[in-house]
Amino acid sequence: MSKSPQDLQIAILGAGMGGLTCALALAQQGFKHIDVYETASDLGFVGAGIQLAPNMARVLDRLGVWKGIEAEAVNLEETSVRTGASDSELAHVALQYIEKTYGYPHMVGHRASLAGGLYEGCLKHAQIRFHFSTTAENVTFGARPTFTAVPRDTSQSPYTVEADVLLGADGIKSNTRVGMLELLGIQAGVQDTNQAAYRIMIHKDQIQDDPELLELINSNKVVRWIGEKRHIIAYPVSNNTIYNLSTTQPDSNFAAATNATYTTRGSKTAMLNVFGDFCPKVQRMLNLVPEGEVCEWKLRVHDPLPTWVHESVALVGDACHPTLPHLAQGAAQAIEDGAVIAVALAKLPDTTPASIHKALKVYEKVRKDRAYALVDLAAASGRALHLGDGAAKEERDKQFAALKEGKGPVPDKWADADVQRNIYGFDCTKVTEEKFDEYFA
């Protein structure tokens, strides 16, 4: 008897947003043998705030996990773009139309809530097995890809895993990507963006005596303060009990760091100096960060890859399309990847290695151009936000002024209605179902 697609053995490397979505979406499609290998001992998502855009919510809802995530999130009703130094408003965009237009509101939540919701969804499916504290090494490519699973517990011996399909959702430092590119003789390096980020969480009990900050945390508003080469985006999460700030600034602390270094313990004094010319409201929030708890992230992206797929192996999420945070689409795009892979594999006409490869190429055709277009758009949006004095800044601020009169494009592409249409209006699973036969052929 020939094997059905649902009998395929699927190995997923990495239990981030992309890996968890791959597992859950495949289980929902009836796949019976799904194994997830994760280097960390548990999910342990400390993380910070995360934007839950309609294109993400649509996938999560179909996977049966959106309601629980939504219950802990905050519905964004408006966005305000402000000058960092003066706190004067450059632009204001109402966001209530998003739910009416795309079927889901634009919400924000805690990264732990999103990851936890996906993980809890996975635990309801006995066919998904998690292998924590296990590193994947020596990936081989072929009709039946393999890798060496190395348990962190040294009393356990490494062992070889063989699968019909291997999904490399192993993050921006993906070993699967490195192995694939070496095998194919492709040179694709890491692009240093010369930008870094602080991520800050302020709890409501820290600001009980500050009416201005209480107004922010009790709102349904996202605020972006912009200055030359720097900005801060901020919004409430966790049912308005935490105020999340994410900054972007020139990278000075990683100048001598190796390529492997993506985070460093930051200096509070240095952080305050970076935003020293921003308004008192911002200063008060940054001052609330305890000394010794400042952490800075280096922002890097890859050179675009010519392929995400080789034989029966595919790359997922940050392994193939890491992005700058200026469109708030990093997790959403990894989640779209997982949803598309599950549909493509479920529609396999047979389970030969040739057909598996073609189905994974369908995933690539649905996702690759879209993902890279958004990577480029996020970078462009960041450049527009960080302009210093000069003609380009004057033109940008004219666009912001016109926007206040209801005219023209939004320099902050995250809030631009035309950009939102392209991002939020795209139904990745529907497109995969409709285009599968054409792309598979």
From TrEMBL:
Residue ranges occupied by any FAD-binding domain in the UniProt entry: 8-377
Cited SUPFAM superfamilies: FAD-linked reductases, C-terminal domain, FAD/NAD(P)-binding domain
Key word rRNA-binding present: no
Cross-referenced Gene3D superfamilies: 3.30.9.30, FAD/NAD(P)-binding domain
Pfam families assigned to the protein according to its UniProt record, in alphabetical order: FAD_binding_3
Keywords: FAD, Flavoprotein, Monooxygenase, Oxidoreductase
Taxonomy, superkingdom: Eukaryota
Protein name: FAD-binding domain-containing protein
